[in-house]
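Sample entry follows:

_____
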Amino acid sequence: MTTMTQTAVKPRPAIRPRIAARAGLFTFIGANVATVTALFFAAGPSDDVLISVGRLAGLFGALAMAFQLLLVARLPWLDRRLGMDRLTVWHRWTGFSLLWTLLTHFVFIVFGYARVENNGVVDEFATMVTKLEGILRAVVALALILLVGAVSARFARRRLAYETWHFLHLYTYAAVVLAFSHQIALGGSFASSPGAQAYWWAVWGVALGSVLAGRVVLPLARNLRHRLKVVAVMPESDDVVSVYMTGKHLDRMPARAGQFFLWRFMTRDRWWQANPFSLSAAPDGHTLRLTAKAAGDGSASLRSLKIGTRVFAEGPYGAFTTMHQRKPDALLIAGGVGITPIRALLEEISGHVVLLYRVRTQLDAVLLPELRGLAQARGAVVHVLSGPSDQAGPYGPVLGAESLRRMVPDVEERDVFVCGPPGMTSATLRSLRELRVPNQQVHAERFSLAA
């Protein structure tokens, strides 16, 4: 065991960035919900209650669609504080809310006008589609959203390749354009006053502008500045490989240990694929490194990359950084190739560090010589915990509450960073809750999203 030493602790910000970002986002959402409700009543509800409910649901659906765009815009300020995994969860729930509000809008409007016009529901729907401007566009938008919602359900998502799912998800942007044009054509609350029009144009301008800035302009600008290319490809084991990249002005790239990029290697057969891989070494201003396991076609083909291959990288993304460290000391827990962001954090994190590395066999412990070298240099402790995933020791599961307490007696006084496969991560988080480690000290990166 290495000698334990205390390193200088970096000063903490006065306001916790995650709490401040979450409070700001929720305040923004609440203010917009209140504004939309006020605009609805200012425009005057319909005499028919079904039509009134349908219109209000449509307004909330339009607002939810704008929020969806904001959540997936990959804005650096939000991503660094909340993390793409948390934003993705919120995006998912907002998506289902959007789906139900738009279905409510559709059903209540059709049934409401059928009652007012004393017409059959099917006949009324046919009349609206053929005679009212914007209705057909709205129906197509709803159909596209239903399609995206269906492929986003867990049972469907597991059966689709990432590239297929991502391609189908792009139909959301067509639905946004069609829905907004429908709102302009028939939205009574949209056109009720110059102030209402200015508000809706501002909401959609911010949402679409955020997507354009975060997903197009910023990645293009950074790649033009840094011009990344592959300089080395190093096997770490039979199925794990590290790729080293360099470029221009990397000291100006705002990347931190623990973050990840969406990497696109510009070869004939890979340029259209973007895969998320964490940095496996802290950025040093000269090179970037990713380490990946051959878990799919994208990661398996990394071994064949040629020196000099151009790289288009979107990012950095993720809140799995020392920016959120609250306590002087830390516990790092990694599972499998989830060690990659943990290894990078080991270079940068403050205080005394204990690292628990969970693997099936000792041979699966990639980057272990580097980990031990870093641990010796900074006075950290590394434990490699090998064995089958269902193996239990004398104190219960290997990463169970009792085992964690025995290995790290002061666990509740540390920040805990966890990265690994979903099952291992979820089990570890349950153990930390059982040990009453405060939520603000627990930081998890889901391997399926960022590793």
